[in-house]
Amino acid sequence: MTTFACAQCSTELPPDARACPACGALIHADTLKRLAAQADDATRHGDLIAARTHWQQALALLPPQAEQYVVVQRRVAELTRQIGSTGVTAPEASGGAKEWWGRAGGVGAMALLLASKLKFLLLGLTKASTFISMFAFFGVYWSIYGWPLALGLVIGIYIHEMGHVAMLRRLGIGAGAPLFIPGVGALVMLKERVTDPLTDAMIGLAGPVWGLGAALTALVMYFVTGRDVWFAIAQLTGLLNLFNLIPIWQLDGSRGMHVLARGERWFLVAAIAGALYLTGQPMLFIVGAVAFWRAWQGEDGPGDRRVLATYVTLVMALSLLSRGVN
User: Fold this and answer.
1) 180 near 134, Cβ under 8 Å?
2) So what's the pLDDT on residue 267?
3) Do both 293 and 177 map to the same domain?
4) What is the reported pTM?
């Protein structure tokens, strides 16, 4: 391991140091000033995505215990809110996208939303890695459940993952195409690290929001056709997305809970208990137990009521859809 010295007090420092333990000087002070200037300039020119990117880069160079870290973290969160509320998109993203929080609140309109996003969904299938892994995934589950249910499962998971992709594109964050893994599901690899908890929550919960839309679409098809396979697809898709709301590891629920303040976490626990009482969905025992454990740990995020409302809505809706499925 190589070392270097603090420019102010000459204390020897490890290569990953962000602040001098002796005098408290910021090791990357010059870089931080440059990033701050670039962020301010981008903000003045209305490029909120570039401004947030510069602040995120600065955040990675600051020690978490520093006062500046909290200030920069708040600026990143505020820019994320502005990007989400004004419909700002990255240059390569498609325009005219509706506000994500509006979609999350308008759960009843999910089927129509998916129809309007058909072009975007088909675009994901043009990636060879997605199409090939998706086909292999379909083949494995065809042999187990038959092709109708296997196809519904694959499409539901694909729509869930494309929800993440849509939010990543909206926020200007690079990511790869969905990759299917039999026995695991699917994943989207990010090309950059997300440090802001609100941004992470928006990305994480976008998957279940779109997954709920897929389940509701299957439910509508059941009412239209009367075929039981559509009802089975709706329930299974609902259950898979409810599983993803378990707030642990890299699951979407953990990313959503990361931003919640302590009181909001306890409110979520109470909402999960209420959903369990109303629906009797066994999966909620796991979701609720982990959420209770996370709230009991005393962790405290910056808080965001819209994330909380989205999380609670997803728990209630997905529990009702998957009711009776173990």
Assistant:
1) yes
2) 96
3) yes
4) 0.65
